[in-house]
Each structure stands twice: as C-alpha cells, then as structure tokens.
Amino acid sequence: MAAPISRRSFLSTTAVATACGLGAKAVFACPTGVAGPTVEDTFALRRAGKKIPVIFDTDIGNDIDDTWALLMLLNSPELDVKLVASDHTNCTYRAKILAKMLEVCKRTDVPVGVGLKKGDERAAQSDWVVDYDLDSYAGEVYEDGVDAIIRTIRQSKDPITLIAVGPVTNLPEVLRRAPDVAEKARFVGMHGSVRKGYANSPKISPEWNVRADPPALQAVFAAPWEKTVTPLDTCGIVHLKDDRYAKVLGCQAPGTKALIENYRIWTKWHEAQDRKMPDPSQRSSTLYDTVAIYLGYSEDLVEMETHPLIVTDDGYTRIDAKGHPARCAMAWKDLGGFEQHLTERVTREG
Predict the structure, then answer these.
(1) Quick one: which of 86, 186, 317, 333 has the fewest CB in 10 Å?
(2) What are phi and psi of 111, to 5 degrees?
(3) Whole-number pLDDT of residue 34
(4) CA distance 182 to 219
(5) What is the 3-state secondary structure (H, E, C) of the chain?
(6) Predicted structure pTM score
(7) Which residue from 289, 322, 227, 256 is spatially nearest to 56, judged by alpha carbons?
(8) Given a cut of 80, is residue 173 above it in pLDDT?
(9) Domains within the chain, CATH numbers bracketed
C-alpha cells in the first residue's frame, strides 16, 4: 500500500504542474518530495563500475566557461554523455559550437539537440563556427531538442543526471510535455547566489543563469526531482593561472587547443565592445560551469548543505521556508585540489 501524501508534499509535487501550465491533474506521486533518483542512487552506479549517464543543457557561446565545462564533461571517464542540448536563445548558433567541439574531440557518438529558441545571430564565439554547417555533423542532430531530452531520459536504463549550466529555458517545456521525466532524472545546475555574490562578495547577486529566465528555474525547482546546485558561493571563485594555466596553454590535445582558440575569439569579441577582459595568455576567466560538471560525479571537494530555496522574479535565490529543498555546494574543502583536478581533466588526451 502506498504511503499517504501529506498536504505539504502534495503542494510540492503539484507546483511544477502549475508553473508549467499543466493544471492540478498532473500530480506526481512523491510523498517525500523527490520522485526520482538521488545522488546516492547516481553515485552507486560508479561503485558498481558503471558510468553515470548525463545530459548536458547549456547556453554555450555566451560566457566561455560553458566551453571549458563541455571539454571537462567529455574528458570525464565517470560520465556517459547521452546528449548535449543548446538552451536559452540563439540555439542554432550554440548547437554549432557543440557539434564542432564534439567533432574536434572525436565524440560524434554524442547527439546534439537544438533548443526551443532557434537563431544563428552573431555572438561571442561566432568566428569559430562562421563556416560550420550544422547539417554536416557526423552524428545525430535533433531540431527538437526538448523532445530529445525527454526521449533520452525515458529510454535510459539507469538514472540520468541532467546537468544545466545556463538559463533553463528548455526545461519547463520538458516538464510540461513529460512530467514523468522527474522520476528518472536528477537535476544538477550552476545557478544562484546563496551567501556570496560575484567575486566572493558578501552581498548576494541575481546570478545570470537565474536572472535571464526566473520563471524557468522556478519551474525546475518546483519539479519533484532532486536538485543539486553550485551557486556563486563556490563556482564564482574558480580560476586557472600560473602553472596550471600554463599546462592548459601548452597542451596539444585537439580539444584543449580548440578551447583556447575559442577563449581568444571570445575575448576579442568583448574587447571590441570596450569590455575589460582577462588576458588569454596569462589566466582563465572565472570557470563557473565546471563545478556543475564535477558535481555530476563527485562531491568530495565541496561542503554540501541542503536549503529550501525560492527563486524570485528578479533573479535572486533566497533561503526561505516556503522554498523547495536544494542541495547546495556552499564552500570548498579544497579549492586548489579542484583547480588541479580541472587542469588534469581539460588537458586529458584520449
């Protein structure tokens, strides 16, 4: 006999239906507030000698850290990348970057999904894909990236980890079309600012991935899947410099060379708009999204806390008793250890 659903858990499980326009009929049966797999279920796959199946949802082509995160993802032997999907806006442009990087890394086994908001307008990394034809990609390209996310989750024999490192514009539509996916996936995101803001400021910030589309993250947080995030508290202080960055610059692996090429193109784009940028010959920019990749397979180097979070309409993530529980990477146990780990991952060959 199923356990009774309390009023509190009923409200938690129906909130995503309301947020996604599904109405009260779309109720998830999750008395604990989490219908699907947990971090323990996911990491159990590793202990059993299996890889963790992953979907990567990204607004690659805005900040360069998404490109670092993609290379880290592809170079992480713990992960089985089932799909990469472009998200937010200008999604054809973003899909081109994904596809070309996959080709460079000889990973055309990975399908590319094009997000909801199509477009191929010039942006920060356009010069890298100016002559690239998405139809030439040797792997699969799915024009309906939302459908590709749904099918990938439904067809997986093992729990899926959905790693999102941008405004999650695709995901409310995923949940609207297929609320059952929360039963087979856990959400890992680079989102928010809980106690610290940008540049380790004690003043919290409306972090970009949240501020760009607050209703989308509200729907994602309301869904009854487990939610794990790296807010600015941890991801906002990750950089590579000195010997670690020199190792990246000197690496001759094709993916690493493409990463640095993209970094230089991205920097020139912003400098042309009179923005002060880091020097690509000396150090990296802030590598926010790489922490979300790490949380897909390990939490050893971070301090995790669970807090009820709300997403405000102006893009803040605040601890509030009325919020939805989220597992948050709130502090580093060993930041230097992570930066060394990241260096090894993005310079990994083969």
Answers:
(1) 333
(2) -75, 155
(3) 80
(4) 12
(5) CCCCCCHHHHHHHHHHHHHCCCCCCCCCCCCCCCCCCCHHHHHHHHHCCCCEEEEEEECCCCCCHHHHHHHHHHCCCCEEEEEEEECCCCHHHHHHHHHHHHHHCCCCCCCEECCCCCCCCCCCCHHHCCCCCHHHCCCCEECCHHHHHHHHHHHCCCCEEEEECCCCCCHHHHHHHCHHHHHCEEEEECCCCCCCCHHHCCCCCCCHHHHCCHHHHHHHHHCCCCEEECCHHHHCCCCCEHHHHHHHHHCCCHHHHHHHHHHHHHHHHHHCCCCCCCCCCCECCCCCCHHHHHHCCCCCCEEEEEEEEEECCCCCEEECCCCEEEEEEEEECCHHHHHHHHHHHHCCCC
(6) 0.91
(7) 289
(8) yes
(9) 8-18+31-346 (3.90.245.10)
103-137 pLDDT, tens digit each: 999 999 999 999 999 999 999 999 999 999 999 99
Give the chain's mean pLDDT.
Answer: 92
Distances (CA, A) of 77 to 167, 209, 216, 297: 27, 27, 31, 10
Q: pLDDT, tens digit, for every residue of 309-322?
A: 999 999 999 999 99
> In one letter, which amino acid is 267?
T
**Looking at residue 349, what is its pLDDT?**
83
Distance CA 39, CA 22 (A): 28
The Cα 318–Cα 183 span in angstroms is 26
Write out the two tokens for 95.
Answer: 């899909």
Q: Would the pLDDT of 263 be above 70? A: yes
CA neighbours closer than 13 Å in the CB half-sphere of residue 69: 34
